[in-house]
Amino acid sequence: MITKKGLIIGVTELEDKGRYLRVLTDDGVHEVYARGAKKITSKNNAGTEIFCYSRLCATPGKNGLILDSSEPERQFYNLRFDIKKLALANYFAEVVMHSGIGTEKTGETLNLFLLCLYYLDAGNRETALIKAVFELRYACEIGFMPGLIGCDVCHKYDEGLTFVIKSGKLYCEEHLNGTGYPLSPAVLHALRFVCLSELKKICDFKLSPEAERDLARIAENYLIYHTEKHLKSLTYYNRLS
Ligand SMILES: [Zn+2]
Predict the structure, then answer these.
(1) How far is the CA of 215 from the centre of ligand 1 (A)?
(2) Which end of the chain has fewer surrounding CB within 10 Å, N or C?
């Protein structure tokens, strides 16, 4: 028997009243079959809902893990009342299911996901900002940490820098070869803050609407470029925005 805490990031309701779950834990994404969990009377009904963070006990079976028991640790109730937030959480889930958890630090992808759900649920941060934070920090977790100290050639670090998506590097006007995103001081600071701060702080900043749009554009394009994935859930989310 295996006992683990995990976030339910995918639920397929099955005809036999069971649920097929994709569970993000500190060591990866696991597939778990939960017999009868769709039934409202099942002891595992609440703990196997989408985006529930649960303590799960499971036994290895022929085709993956079979759930024995579950206990919800945290439910992000408000997500289900907001179609845009739910769409964003589904996008995060699809990103993780496609690109994994990376090897940078154990449990960091799970903690990042939980942090972003916490802020989406609490409603005290802009949804677009949470999205950008997730995309940038997740890219770092899976091995695409951008070089944000200064110009890659002369190390100029403050003004007139451009961020190049493909290389993940900064260049000053003199050393820029090609195109990129010119950064205002606020956006440069935000990029460094999100990629380099301690995880629990990374949503603790504010930007003007214009700077937020710039950061959002960079974050989305950076993750798409480096994961080479155009996900349906992102198209859907952007249609709602
Ligand atoms: Zn330079």
Answers:
(1) 22
(2) N
